[in-house]
Amino acid sequence: MEMNGSHIIPADRETVWMALNNPDVLRQAIPGCKELEQIGENQLAAKVVAKVGPVKATFKGEVTLENIVAPESYTITGEGKGGIAGFAKGGANVKLTEVEGGTQLDYSVDAKVGGKLAQLGSRLIDGTAAKLANEFFENFSEIVSGEGEEAVDA
């Protein structure tokens, strides 16, 4: 599965960068995220509940941040396992650019799924992934701009 997108976050690039590297902000922004903790300098462990069509599962996994160019870009790679529901693994390139009205966040995702999830079909998986990405960016924008539950300390 490949997915690309771009979102304008109503905050300066440094604030957006700090939020993208803050496990508390990400925990609030990621749909279905139950746990997210830093386990190493550039590693996070996560527990996320996701529903894709008729399959609902709790995924546990780790992500690593690589190719870090602060406060401009990084690559996220990781894998999550959801028991009999299957697995998801892949990566995303994230780039931040200052624009009028805030910061443009561009992303490019390449992911693979297996197990029961893979049997659901790419249209359902792609649609769910796009919906979850939009929810993340709505939540993230609210938090970063100070409209969410917890504003980011700049």
Could you explain how this protein is built, in words?
This is CoxG family protein. It comes from Pseudahrensia aquimaris. Pfam families: COXG. The protein is α+β, with helices and mostly antiparallel strands and 154 residues long. It has one domain (2-144): Alpha-D-Glucose-1,6-Bisphosphate, Chain A, domain 4 (2-Layer Sandwich). The chain has helices spanning 13-20, 23-29, 116-119, 122-144, and strands at 2-9, 33-40, 43-52, 55-69, 73-81, 87-99, 102-114. A seven-stranded antiparallel sheet has the order 1-7-6-5-4-3-2. Helix 2 (23-29) packs across helix 4 (122-144). It is globular, with a radius of gyration of 15 Å. The relative contact order is 0.25.
Summarize the structure.
With 154 residues, this protein is of the alpha+beta class.
Note the topology.
Elements: E1 2-9, H1 13-20, H2 23-29, E2 33-40, E3 43-52, E4 55-69, E5 73-81, E6 87-99, E7 102-114, H3 116-119, H4 122-144
For the record, the CATH class is Alpha Beta
Q: Return the domain count.
A: 1
- What is the helical fraction, as a range of percent? 25-40%
Q: Count the DSSP helices.
A: 4
Series of H and E elements: EHHEEEEEEHH
Provide the spatial order of strands within the biggest beta sheet: 1-7-6-5-4-3-2
The CATH topology annotation reads as: Alpha-D-Glucose-1,6-Bisphosphate, Chain A, domain 4
Alpha-carbon distance between the two ends: 35 Å
Secondary structure class reads: alpha+beta
What is the second-level CATH architecture?
2-Layer Sandwich
Biggest sheet layout: 7 strands, antiparallel
Report the principal-axis shape.
globular
Low-confidence stretches: 149-154
- CATH homologous superfamily label: START domain
Radius of gyration, whole Å: 15 Å
Roughly what fraction of the amino acids lie in strands?
Answer: over 45%
* Counted beta strands: 7
Mean pLDDT figure: 92
